[in-house]
Amino acid sequence: MATTGTSRTPLTQLESWKALEEHYQKTKDIELRTLFAEDATRGERFTTEAVGLYYDYSKNRVTSETLALLQKLAQEVGLRERIDAMFGGEKINITEQRAVLHVALRAPKDQTILVDGQNVVPEVHEVLDKMSAFSDRVRSGEWKGYTGKRIRNIINIGIGGSDLGPDMAYQALRYYSDRDLNVRFVSNVDGTHFAEATRDLNPEETLFIVSSKTFTTIETMTNARTARAWTLKALKDETAIARHFVAVSTNAEEVQKFGIDTANMFGFWDWVGGRYSYDSAIGLSLMIAIGPENFRRMLAGFHEMDEHFRTAPFERNLPVLLGLIGIWYNNFFGAQTVAVLPYEQYLKKLSAYLQQLDMESNGKHVNEAGQDVNYQTGPIIWGQPGTNGQHAFYQLIHQGTKLIPCDFIGFYQSLNILPPHHDLLIANMIAQAEALAFGKTAEELKAEGSPEYQIPHRVCKGNRPSNTIFAERLTPEALGKIIALYEHKVFVQGTVWNIDSFDQWGVELGKVLAKRIIPELQSEQEPELKHDSSTNQLIQRYRQHKNH
Ligand code: F6P
To answer: Which residues constitute the catalytic centre (predicted)?
Structure first.
């Protein structure tokens, strides 16, 4: 049984935590300039490389002692046992009594992973095979629309984990995609999203993939019904639906109720969390776009990182190091956010994807035992691809009053070789990390001849920490490794904070209240409003001005 909140010593009373607090008091003012000056080999020593990812953590405000203490913390919170519990199929999502087995989605065929005594790996591969066969049929043109036309447009309808993952990964792996296919993602319940995504498409050539773990999510069901009406308006025959709609869900009953034949349904399981699901059947749109072989290469990349995470000693374990260094800033320096800054245009949706992964997982205020925590939990994740962010918000990171640890992600090789673009891109990434760490002093500015009145404004104090992650090229494998790295980083941090990283009760309240307000906006009669005065007023104003 995993160590849970009930049996664990409160985090702030652990020996390693207290030692870290003391250590923080002693080292909090230490400068990266000094650390680098004192150790000429720091830039080599404070790095590690595994599964093709090079991780440079030298530009962090850590010493060897900090890292040793953080690793001690990982031991004290039972991280090793927790990792084993997750990979072993234990029900570590305690509030929903579920196993947490996204790692099974990328397990090779011969691996055994038991949930309630049953090996789930064969089922995973059955679904993968079914997805592959379907993808091949669509890609080859064998799967035709109702009027016999080839499918040219794939629209994934989903939201949250049923949208962000496939969309992010499709953008990331676009280089590998079939350019004759139009792949789009509709998520927002705002009808504009659907209208704009379909306005130039022919329903005869359009396949909708309705992706929803529960198949009850209001946004997705509303968009799916609109898609159905859009299709029927053109094709005028209910039987056309079978050629133009497939479903991805764990809920066969609801899929059937919606009118999609379960023969056209791709399943997954309650042990896959929505935000951990794009490598399940939720990735069907991606698989159609890039082909089954590339999809499986991506899974192999995920698996390599899983194995590294499961087996590597903490001092060389990428997700463990990334997670622990994040704890250092979040809990000791009081940093509120982390900027994720990929220097790769194809990763333009990575930060949006990581927002859900991290913030829905670790945005919790009670520990596993249900007690309020007396320490900070998950950070705010945000970012933009470089170099765009440099001309927008980097100013605040360089000279503002907030400490914002950054993750830089780059590749040695570009997929689109257009000299000198890639050299300029990567020069910028490396330069930003350097500028953040070492800044520019008043003396240096004086020596360069800056006018006196400008000097205080131009000083960059430096000492702004960052991680740099470098990989060869953005391949499907590399994407799998990077995503698994962040999944496990979130796991490491959730383990330290002793929270359930796999539920998301906080999003429920808003959903319930919206359901109550919908009829109040729509009823013909003046509704009896029993909200607070602000909510009542907003509802009334909307009723008066809406287009009927
Ligand atoms: O908003 C919460 C949430 O449950 C997410 O966790 C999930 O990814 C999303 O909604 C979509 O859920 P579903 O796949 O069931 O439609």
So the answer is: 360 (proton donor), 391, 511
